[in-house]
Design a protein that fits this description.
Layout: H1 3-9, H2 11-25, H3 27-36, H4 41-51, H5 54-65, H6 70-95, H7 100-107, H8 111-118, H9 123-151, H10 166-175, H11 182-198, H12 206-232
Length: 233
């Protein structure tokens, strides 16, 4: 099957390409903000090449730009990157990559590639979605990071170009199909409230982790409660 035929017949491939373009474009913003925080072009590009985790990267340069030490910047980036370890376990169970593919999968296991894979029911489509999104975002993110870093101040405020909204739109596109029924809406609402309340109280990046912990607790409580309700009947 050639690439054109694959794109035409595979919903996961189309979704992966779409999310790759939307998320990859946001790399321009990181490149520009990275150099504005005091890092050189090679350092900014290495962050995207080796760390490759948008939230962690922005946390790193955000701490540096605010006057924090490299150690505190690394700590913030590590804290936000913990979620990728959870994603890795899910992807390993789902796709079971072997050999060099296992190392490649670890590098491109991010929010977008994991969400695309988990959103598919067919095993083949799961793999196509994961690799298309993961590799697509990796390539475009690094290219756009280099472009943003080289352009530097010429771009001005990245928000002028609307790039700050690209990642948000991408995540909403992934989330929307999963909001079916009252429970997902209730969890999403509670997490949104927790995030908004936490923004003025804790350092950047922490509110979303707190919201994730709340969602996990609600999910765990729901699973524990279900057998009890069945037994009561």
């Amino acid at each position: 099957m050639n690439v054109r035929e694959l794109v035409r017949t595979s919903p996961a491939t189309r979704a992966g390409l779409s999310i790759a373009v939307a998320t990859g474009a946001y790399g321009v913003s990181f490149g520009a903000l990275g150099t504005a925080s005091g890092l050189g072009v090679p350092e900014v590009c290495l962050l995207s090449l080796l760390l490759f985790s948008g939230g962690s990267q922005f946390a790193f340069i955000g701490v540096l730009a605010g006057g924090g030490s490299p150690a505190s910047a690394a700590g913030a980036a590590t804290l936000l990157g913990l979620r990728n370890g959870v994603y890795g376990m899910q992807v390993n169970t789902l796709l079971r990559p072997r050999g060099w593919r296992r190392l490649a999968a670890a590098q491109v296991t991010i929010d977008e590639s994991t969400a695309i894979a988990l959103g598919q029911d067919d095993r083949a489509e799961q793999g196509r979605g994961f690799w298309t999104a993961g590799v697509g975002v990796f390539v475009l993110w690094n290219l756009m990071t280099l472009l943003g870093a080289l352009a530097g101040d010429a771009l001005g405020d990245p928000r002028r170009w609307g790039l700050d909204g690209a990642a948000v739109a991408a995540f909403l596109g992934l989330l929307w199909p999963r909001l079916r029924g009252r429970e997902p809406w209730a969890i999403a609402t509670v997490c949104a409230v927790v995030t908004v309340l936490g923004i003025p109280l804790v350092p950047p990046g922490i509110p979303i982790l707190v919201a994730a912990a709340v969602a996990a607790l609600v999910g765990w409580w729901g699973r524990e409660r279900a057998p009890e309700e069945v037994a009561a009947r």
